[in-house]
Amino acid sequence: MPKSKRDKIVSLTKVKKKTKETKGKLIDEVRECLSKYNNLFVFSTANLRSNILIKIRQHFKQNSRIFYGRNSVMAVALGKTPEQEVENGLYQVAQMLKGPCGLMFTNEKKDNICKFFDEFAEEEFARAGDLAPFEVVIPAGPVHVDDVEDDEEHKKWVTGSFEPQLRKLGLQTHLNNGKIELLERFVVCKEGDRLSSDQTKILRHFGRRLVEFRITLLAHWSKKKGFKRFKEVIDDNTEKMDEN
């Protein structure tokens, strides 16, 4: 009896496995940077968005190299213990590679890097699971995107084709001369709410960016001065300057 074609399992995706070769390449690249760049920073991220990280990489591409992710492999490259470290003090850098963090190798002056990241922040749309930092209310009346100028002439009105989507998300709306109107005040979220997928969709439709992408420098290392921790996160989630 001929074999049925319907019994065949067809893979629709191809995923490259992380081989020893790719890990070895990353280790070599990290170690090469130790001799190529004067300064090494450990940083953590809040509300990471890959497009913004790409912008930062582009900004510093002339004199820097940023590694993000693969913490365990980067730690191996630096050396996890005093006996394994490639240079003095690097095992302390390796110990900090936990959670959403990365390494920045650079020939830029230390003070310039600190100033840049101290001032750098970009507002972004929240994702499901994020906590709402404040209450967001959509007032009754004509619906417009909120991230543009406030004067009536320059408001970006939400097109009528969006009305079915807004209704599906729980908003009471109707069309008036091709413009969507909200029939009653709608509370999207309250301060401290853990946002659902539907809430984040509504916030995006209305242009409400609730979270901020930030990079925090945790420590610095150089061959001349060794390892220096900038900030220490303590149990109550406050930060204090390291006294060492």
UniProtKB/TrEMBL annotation:
Large ribosomal subunit protein uL10-like insertion domain span: 126-207
Domain of life per record: Eukaryota
Major localisation: cytoplasm
GO biological process: nuclear-transcribed mRNA catabolic process; ribosomal large subunit biogenesis; rRNA processing
Keyword set, alphabetical order: Cytoplasm, Nucleus
Xref: InterPro entries: Ribosomal_uL10 (IPR001790), Ribosomal_uL10-like_insert (IPR040637), Ribosomal_uL10-like_insert_sf (IPR043164), Ribosomal_uL10-like_sf (IPR043141), Ribosome_Assembly_uL10 (IPR051742)
GO cellular component terms, semicolon-separated: cytoplasm; nucleolus; preribosome, large subunit precursor
UniProt cross-references to Pfam families, sorted A to Z: Ribosomal_L10, RL10P_insert
Intracellular or extracellular location(s): Cytoplasm; Nucleus, Nucleolus
GO molecular function, one term: RNA binding
The keyword Chaperone belongs to this UniProt entry's keyword annotation: no
Membrane spanning stretches: none
Subunit structure: Associates with the pre-60S ribosomal particle.
Protein role: Component of the ribosome assembly machinery. Nuclear paralog of the ribosomal protein P0, it binds pre-60S subunits at an early stage of assembly in the nucleolus, and is replaced by P0 in cytoplasmic pre-60S subunits and mature 80S ribosomes.
Family stated for the protein in its record: Belongs to the universal ribosomal protein uL10 family.
Cited PANTHER family: MRNA TURNOVER PROTEIN 4 HOMOLOG, MRNA TURNOVER PROTEIN 4 MRTO4
Protein name: mRNA turnover protein 4
